[in-house]
Specification:
- This protein has twelve helices and ten strands.
- By secondary structure, it is of the alpha/beta class.
- The strands form two sheets. Strands 1-2-3-6-7-8-9-10 form an eight-stranded parallel beta barrel, surrounded by seven helices.
- It is globular and about 50 Å long.
- The chain starts with a helix and ends in an 11-residue tail after the last helix.
- It binds 1,3-dihydroxyacetonephosphate (13P).
- The site of 1,3-dihydroxyacetonephosphate (13P) has 10 residues, from α11.
Length: 338
């Protein structure tokens, strides 16, 4: 794989008007989502749900790529076509979550380190054979009293960079995701400070590990107030603070930034993305890589019932279309009703 083809994949992942569907919930996380709609998390129910998402008519207009989970990349549509092959046929790029989850960081109470580097070279080779063209690794940074520590930020940045280098070696575009959690009562200013430091360390480590920045996609959080903070930043404040931080920390060589939704409501995640793009003058494509913000209404409309598949797909189509407009800075909340 040449550097040029890595860059071409990365650019396609963030192409104008398109964004990424994160459907890589681990078995534990998807069980939580199914619990909320009182659906048992069996392998067939998980397959049927991903089938609903991936076979949504017209989704490829707005969805450039889908992040799959290990179980999902080995599953097939109802008609027996492997999901990765089906997505590729639709013009959607298959990707794969490769981290093994965020675990307690020994010696640092309340902080996490993402595991999964051991054997990663071999797993990436297998995933490439199964059709994956990009991968995801999520680092989790918690804001709290006295945390994050500098060492937690450093350890996570280092792991992200080692992962990214292995991906590029395998011809796979790494989505580099240092997520600063929204949980807590911290201010927006504190989120900005921590996010900027996490990004700064991440890009230093990416360079140290000889990662080609033209062949990655950055997946950061937006700069928002903590969920329990009394003073919630406005949409305009979120957009301004997010762009300020990204402009100072993310080199223009990076082709695209695809945000996580992180627990924001579907509408707010779309409104924030649109406000960020409406500011203009951004050196990268700026789009979505949402999990919950694309799927929450789908799960509710579907409810695990075979005769509600179309209703679920209509919700995915709607959110994907609105987020596509937000990629162009053209979303208005009034469009929700239309
Ligand atoms: P959310 O949009 O639900 O935060 O999920 C995106 C994701 O892939 C987190 O790793």
């Amino acid at each position: 794989m040449t550097a040029q083809s890595l860059a071409a994949i990365a650019q396609a992942m963030v192409a104008p008007g398109k964004g990424i569907l994160a459907a890589d919930e681990s078995s534990g996380t998807i069980k939580k989502r199914f619990d909320a709609i009182r659906l048992e998390s069996t392998e067939e129910n998980r397959r049927a749900y991903r089938d609903l998402l991936f076979t949504t008519p017209g989704a490829a207009e707005f969805i450039s790529g889908v992040i799959l989970y290990d179980e999902t990349i080995r599953q097939s549509t109802r008609d027996g076509v492997p999901f990765a092959k089906y997505l590729t046929q639709q013009g959607i790029i298959p990707g794969i979550k490769v981290d093994a989850g965020a675990k307690a960081l020994a010696g640092f109470p309340g902080e996490k380190i993402t595991e999964g580097l051991d054997g990663l070279r071999e797993r990436l080779k297998e995933y490439a054979g199964l059709g994956a063209r990009f991968a995801k690794w999520r680092a989790v940074i918690t804001i709290g009293s006295g945390i994050p520590s500098a060492w937690c930020l450093q350890a996570n940045a280092h792991a992200l960079a080692r992962y990214a280098a292995l991906c590029q070696e395998a011809g796979i575009v790494p989505i580099v995701e240092p997520e600063v959690l929204m949980d807590g009562d911290h201010t927006q200013a504190r989120c900005a400070q921590v996010t900027c430091e996490a990004l700064e360390r991440t890009f230093i480590e990416l360079r140290h590990h000889h990662v080609d920045l033209s062949g990655i996609v950055l997946k950061p959080n937006m700069i928002v107030s903590g969920t329990d903070c009394k003073q919630q930043a406005s949409v305009a404040e979120v957009a301004e603070a997010t762009v300020r931080c990204l402009k100072s920390m993310v080199p223009a060589t990076v082709p695209g930034i695809a945000f996580l939704s992180g627990g924001q409501s579907p509408e707010l995640a779309t409104e924030h993305l649109s406000a960020i793009n409406a500011l203009g003058g951004l050196p990268w494509q700026v789009t979505f890589s949402y999990g919950r913000a694309l799927q929450a209404t789908v799960l509710k409309a579907w409810g695990g019932k075979a005769d509600s598949v179309k209703a679920g797909q209509a919700e995915l189509y709607k959110r994907a279309r609105l987020n596509s407009l937000a990629h162009g800075g053209k979303y208005k909340p009034a469009m929700e009703a239309a």
